[in-house]
C-alpha cells in the first residue's frame, strides 16, 4: 500500500493524470510493455488507459518443425 501512495504522490507532483497513462513498445520493448501492464494490474497501482504494441516479442521458443520438413537450419528443442 505504501508503494501505491508513493506512486500517486509522484504522479501528482509531476502533474500526471493517472487515468490517462499509456504504455507502448516495439519488438522486445513490446514484450516489456506487456509485462509492465500485467505488473501494474497485479499490484493494483496504476491502470493503463491505453497500450500500443508494435510486433511484441512475447514468445521466444523456436517453432516446431513441420512433419514434412527436413529441419535444416532449425533449432532442436
Structure description:
With 77 residues, this protein is an alpha+beta fold. The protein has a domain at 12-54. Helices cover 36% and strands 13% of the residues. It has helices spanning 2-13, 28-43; strands at residues 22-26, 50-54. The protein has a two-stranded parallel sheet with strand order 1-2. Strand 1 (22-26), helix 2 (28-43) and strand 2 form a beta-alpha-beta unit. The longest helix has 16 residues, at 28-43. The termini are far apart.
Write the layout of secondary structure elements.
Elements: H1 2-13, E1 22-26, H2 28-43, E2 50-54
Parallel strand pairs: 1-2
| Beta-strand percent range | 5-15%
Rg:
19 Å
In whole angstroms, the N-to-C terminal distance is 43 Å
> What's the arrangement of strands in the largest beta sheet?
1-2
Q: Report the uncertain regions.
A: none
* Mean pLDDT over all positions: 76
Overall structural class, as computed from helix and strand content, comes to alpha+beta
